[in-house]
Amino acid sequence: MAGVVSQPDRRRGRGGALCPSPVKARALELGLPVFTPGRIRRDTGIQQELAALGADVYVVVAFGQILPLSVLEQPPLGCWNGHASLLPRWRGAAPIQWALIEGDRQTGVGIMAMEEGLDTGPVLLERRLEIGLLENARQLGERLASLTGDLLVEALPRIAASGEGPRRERLERLGVRPQAREGVRIARLLGREDFHIDWHLPALKVHRRVMGLHPGAFTHWRGQRFKLHATEPLLASCADELTPEAAAWAWRLSGQEVHSTAAPGTLLALEPGVGVVVSCGEGALLLRGGQLEGRRAVGNQALLQQLGGEIGDRFGS
């Protein structure tokens, strides 16, 4: 390996100390050259240093910056991206989050030949994964990261064996698949407003947002911010994918009107050892884990104790 490019150090924790990314930390342990440009498109010095490394191929995974043509054209075997979606669906910065928010039942990883467009290049290899209803962004991200590593191990020998030459000829020898023109979705960057839960949404949509934005989705409870870490939609149609406790509640609520007449965000039940049942715009949601600001993350019985609420109290105010 010739070198590693990662994001600049960020301030983390209560003390605000500058910390390297995990990629940078590991690269330094291995004694590799590390580059941390703030804006690689504008940093011609870094671009020249990368060219001087003489790398045969560049591999990019979740870098978070767009590479200029001057960098894309440097390695003789091209630049290749491990992208966590089934392209052309979810091009852009947050494919894992948007796949969960939008309720996709499948996602995957594509090894894509990079070009100037936003994730528009042809795909060499692709693998699919099923998304579980109760899977959050961290869990799905870990599975996709593992799959990305496996695919890159498979792809790089093929890329090396294809040899150098003009880009068009190299890609023809590799037999890459051009992306379809239909079905393009952009996974835009998420803003603060995306993380604020709207209890007027149907329970399934609220749940998907909590899972997709894990661990950052929040509401308010008695004037304090409350982060939602784990939920289950209490819908009979989802019962086969719920935990046994949630499935029992889903069947119990089906056919009852109390959750549909209660104002969105209302506590309908406080179930010891299970969690808090909350009314949504349609249906109800079971809160399995969360965290009041300044407190530790808790679940089940500890969640009930941390909230200290009563039936009829409301979130979101």
What does this structure look like?
The chain is of the alpha+beta class and 317 residues long. It folds into two domains: 53-187, Formyl transferase, N-terminal domain (Rossmann fold), CATH 3.40.50; 192-307, 3-Layer(aba) Sandwich (Rossmann fold), CATH 3.40.50. It is built from eleven helices and 16 strands. It has helices at 22-29, 44-53, 69-72, 95-101, 137-162, 167-174, 192-195, 203-212, 244-253, 258-261, 300-307; strands at 4-5, 10-12, 17-19, 34-35, 58-60, 79-83, 91-92, 106-113, 123-130, 186-187, 218-221, 224-233, 267-271, 275-279, 284-292, 298-299. Strands 11, 12, 13, 14, 15 and 16 form a six-stranded antiparallel sheet that branches. A hairpin with a 4-residue loop joins β14 (275-279) and β15 (284-292). The longest helix is centred in the middle third of the chain and has 26 residues, at 137-162. The model has no long low-confidence stretch (mean pLDDT 94).
